[in-house]
Design brief:
Helix content is about 60%, strand content about 10%. It has about 250 residues and is α+β, with helices and mostly antiparallel strands. The chain has one domain. The strands form 2 sheets. Strands 2-3-4-5-6 form a 5-stranded antiparallel sheet. It has a two-stranded antiparallel sheet with strand order 1-7. α1 packs parallel to α3 and α3 packs antiparallel against α6. It is elongated and about 85 Å long. The protein starts with 7 loop residues before the first helix and ends with a strand. Pfam families: DUF2884 (PF11101). InterPro entries: DUF2884. This is DUF2884 family protein. Keywords: Signal.
């Protein structure tokens, strides 16, 4: 089963790349096999299999795989509350993701400060970090669907940032190593080469440690995620199966 606990996991994946330690599946034990798209007048949940593969929640209405589902007055009310609560959760989820962006970019900046980078490289690095941060913040702000943050897309975006930054740093250190070797300082040349080769390797564990700061913010979302799971209890698709839009594990 894919883990798509609403928008949070996918946004955090975009922030962290392959760092999964903070996602809601582990903190809140909340998962879903559906992607979710939030539209002004409805919520759309979709997945490849099993049926129902498409669930649409409107104003007091439920449709699964194109078939309307008869609802009691109580069920209509619960669907309306489910929609309201999920929409209210979105800004909070995005706030956590935005904080993750800030932590990630600050970590890259701090790691680069420990390296012997020349002034021009440091300035260019800061410029690129600012551009990536602004782009990612805007993507988060504009997103209304987990389809925007599928694993491959998130990983590709994280790799795009690293591929833009790592060669810049490695090139600067490599050039300095070459200059040191040409002047006979082989020890310094070796140190710089080691730094260049370890830039990406050393970054991820340090980032994982700093992202622990997000854990309390994510934990604060857990009661609302659990409430969504409770609101859907008893709701069934047109084929009689429970919806299970959100699942809470142990």
């Amino acid at each position: 089963m894919r883990s798509h606990p609403l928008l949070a996991v996918c946004m955090l994946l975009a922030v962290c790349g392959s760092v999964h330690a903070q996602d809601l599946a582990k903190v809140c034990h909340a998962t879903s096999s559906y992607d979710v798209t939030v539209e002004p007048d409805r919520l759309i949940f979709d997945r490849d299999a099993p049926a129902p593969t498409r669930v649409v929640l409107g104003a007091g209405s439920l449709q699964t795989d194109g078939q309307p589902v008869a609802l009691s007055d109580e069920d209509q009310d619960r669907i309306d509350v489910f929609q309201r609560d999920l929409r209210a959760l979105m800004p909070r989820v995005k706030s956590v993701a935005q904080h993750g962006v800030a932590i990630t970019m600050q970590t890259i900046h701090d790691e680069s400060a420990s390296l012997d980078l020349d002034q021009d490289t440091r300035a260019e690095l800061d410029r690129r970090l600012a551009a990536h941060a602004a782009d990612l913040r805007q993507r988060i702000a504009d997103s209304h669907s987990t389809h925007d943050w599928h694993g491959d897309a998130a990983d590709n975006y994280a790799n795009q940032i690293l591929s833009d930054i790592t060669p810049l740093v490695a090139s600067s250190l490599g050039q300095q190593a070459l200059n040191a070797a040409m002047t006979g300082d082989l020890q310094q040349a070796g140190t710089l080469r080691d730094q260049a080769s370890n830039v990406a390797t050393n970054f991820q564990p340090r980032l994982e440690g700093r992202l622990q700061a997000l854990r309390p913010e994510i934990q604060a979302l857990c009661p609302d995620i659990q409430r969504l799971s409770q609101l859907q209890e008893g709701l069934r698709a047109s084929n009689g199966r429970p919806l299970n839009l959100v699942q809470i594990g142990q």
